[in-house]
Amino acid sequence: MKRNGETKRRRNVAEEAEQGGGGEDPAMWENLDRNFRQVQSVLDRNRSLIQQVNDNHQSRMADNMSKNVALIQELNGNISKVVSMYSDLNTNFSTAFHGEKNGHDGGGAAGTRA
Where is this region: Disordered (predicted)? Predict the structure, then answer.
């Protein structure tokens, strides 16, 4: 599983932010980390939904198969959320990065999404 690698990367980002990270704005990195955690939460939920759909499908019970409709609809909505969240992350990171390169404070650029 990639979880250990993800955790190590997050820890390294947090440590860099605390140490000044080579001049980068620590608040920017904290915002990016928080946003990536939100994305990971949705992805974890999707993993659970996919498992439920698979279990329901394998049971071949009519009631379970009908439950899959709502599960797949939620999964579809979550995929749209993840696409939007990654798009926002890209925009926020680019704005913060280019603002920082130009001497502007980009720390507040990384917005949050529920």
Answer: 1-31
Q: How many CA atoms are closer than 13 Å to the CA of 71, on its beta-carbon side?
A: 19
Q: How far apart are the first and last CA of the chain?
A: 26
Amino acid at 80: S
Contact present, 6 and 40 (Cβ < 8 Å): yes
- Predicted TM-score (pTM) of the model is 0.64
Number of H helices, E strands in the chain: 3, 0
Q: Contact, 75 vs 50, CB < 8 A?
A: yes
Task: State pLDDT tens for residues 19-57.
Answer: 544 456 788 888 889 999 999 999 999 999 999 999 999
Cβ atoms within 10 Å, residue 49: 19
